[in-house]
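Justification of computing resources. Each target in the renewal requires a structure prediction run like the one illustrated here; the chain below, 95 residues long, is used simply to show the kind of job we budget for.
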Amino acid sequence: MTAWTKKAAIERMDHNHALQDTIGLEPRLRAVIEEAQEQRNIKGYNRIRKYTELKRKISFLVGNLAEREELRSAEVYEIVRSTIDDLLPPDSIDL
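Resulting C-alpha cells:
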C-alpha cells in the first residue's frame, strides 16, 4: 500500500468532479475543506477529534440536514466526508 501524502490527497480532491460540483452549489464547503487541507500533524493534533469537528461543520451543508434540497443525500454527504477524511494527515497514533 502506498503511503499517504498531502500532495496525493489534494490531487484526488482536485480531480473529483462531483466534489467540485458540490462546492459550486454550496460555497461554504470550501472553508471546511481548506481547514482539512491546511491541517498539519503538529504536537497535540488528534486526527479523530479534528475529523469529528469537520464532520459536524458539514452536517448542515450536505446530507439530510442541508439547507439546499439538491444537497440532501447520503451520496453528496459521502463525497465531502471522504474528501475531508483523505485530506487530514495521520496523527502519531496512526503512524
